[in-house]
Design goal:
single chain, 67% helix, 0% strand, nickel insertion
Amino acid sequence: MRTIMADDLLHLLTWLSPAFPTGGFAYSHGLEYAVEARDVTDGAMLREWIGALLRYGAGRTDAILLRHAYRADDLPRIAAFAAACAPTRELAAETLNQGTAFVAAAKPWLPPDLAAVLAAIGPIAYPVAVGALAGATGTDQEATTIAYLHAWCATLVLAGVRLIPLGQSAGLAVQAALEPIIRAIAEQTRGAELDDIAACCIAADIGSMRHETQYTRLFRS
């Protein structure tokens, strides 16, 4: 990884901050049902759940999609492929709503040519939106991938802290334990092709489907 410049850090700290208005706090990626079903009941189980999503689910998939969007190789095709990767209706809404909100909030940084392409695409998956903007602004690809995965995990950790519930210290311990996995996924996806995308997080996918009819819900997925 090349030396990260101050502008790169400023971009990533802003774009992937919890304060950036993507609405990420409203989604749990099926975790809400997993807690109700007692598939996740403590910090250790939360760590394993999110770690599996990183290795075998949306974490790895999103990293590959982000990297391809960064290179801007036929962005409309990548956007369509990303939308098709979502295994359930709620998970599709999660990524498309956040991606579209990200584009709207990122207008001050959007080059006009990219803004025109994104407007033509319409609703866009979150990792594609982040990758496209990072590539267009020259923000370091490796740093962007790691920052995206870190923020994605942090959102799920915070959801777990609220749902299980966990104390803040336990949540931070989970986040710290996920750091080696984040680094490994970033390394593994460098140079990966779209054909390398595969996922096998069946319990999480089923949890997302069952979440749609869950009686009480705090989250939208």
